[in-house]
Amino acid sequence: MPDIAVRIVLCEPTHPGNIGASARAMKTMGLSELVLVAPKLFPSADATARASGADDVLESAQIVATLAEAIDDCAYVVGASARLRSLDWPTMTPRVCAAELVARSRTDKVAIVFGPEHSGLDNEALARCQTLVNIPANPAYSSLNLAMAVQVLCYELRVAGIEPGDDDARLIEQRDAPLATSAELEGFHAHLEAVMLRSGFLNPDHPKLLKRRLRRLFNRACLDQTEVNILRGLLAAVERSVPEPSQDR
Ligand code: SAH
């Protein structure tokens, strides 16, 4: 079975032991691409000890300063979340998520993003995820250790890789343009926000809920690069037709 080409991104992990244990979890399941966003302490003897033979995954881990650098080139990003969120963000089970990621990984770069041990993913990170995956743990005690959550999801990816489901056919549909990358989607959302503000549609004092709802809508559509270009063209045309807002508003 070939390697599973799903990137594992750990956001600001605080315990180096968890980084090592995540590398080990990945290697046992045939994953190798680890990206660390601003780890508190790395490299570290603790990480190497807990990797226990998965040193190659650890040594090839990429270290970046921001989540954007970790996922900008990805067309599909899933956030692992221990909590179910207030605004109903699409959330998958590990099994469904793994099948989708494995299928998409055949044509696009894909990633799962994990949050820091104490706080989980913050709202800014969540906004960069097209969907969430939740391990259906004990509702009264649902937060797994970071590396254990990595293990469960890597296991599901492996099973999905061994037994590709019928979903593959649906997901690898013929496209006439590649899916938009995470960076291209961010560019679109920034442009959309600017136009919504300029036109007076978005109240700058209460932007959050509307912006999240719009992200959810466009994530459902799985935009490709041509579609993003069309929308950007439309926004540019609207921008030209709406006068600059006056400063004394
Ligand atoms: N205290 C944090 C949990 C942090 S655990 C919170 O309440 O959100 C560290 C990371 O492990 C989480 O950010 C998530 O990425 C992953 N994780 C832990 N439990 C999980 C679960 N049940 N489902 C999915 N991911 C989980």
Structural overview:
There is one protein chain. This protein folds into two domains: 6-171, SPOUT methyltransferase, trefoil knot domain (Alpha/beta knot), CATH 3.40.1280.10; 182-241, Helicase, Ruva Protein, domain 3 (Orthogonal Bundle). Strand 1 (6-11), helix 1 and strand 2 form a beta-alpha-beta unit. Strands 3-2-1-6-4-7-5 form a seven-stranded parallel sheet. It is built from eleven helices and seven strands. It has 249 residues and is α/β, with parallel strands linked by helices. Bound molecules: S-adenosyl-L-homocysteine.
Give a nutshell description of this structure:
This protein has 249 residues and is of the alpha/beta class. The chain is built from 11 helices and 7 strands. The N and C termini lie far apart (62 Å).
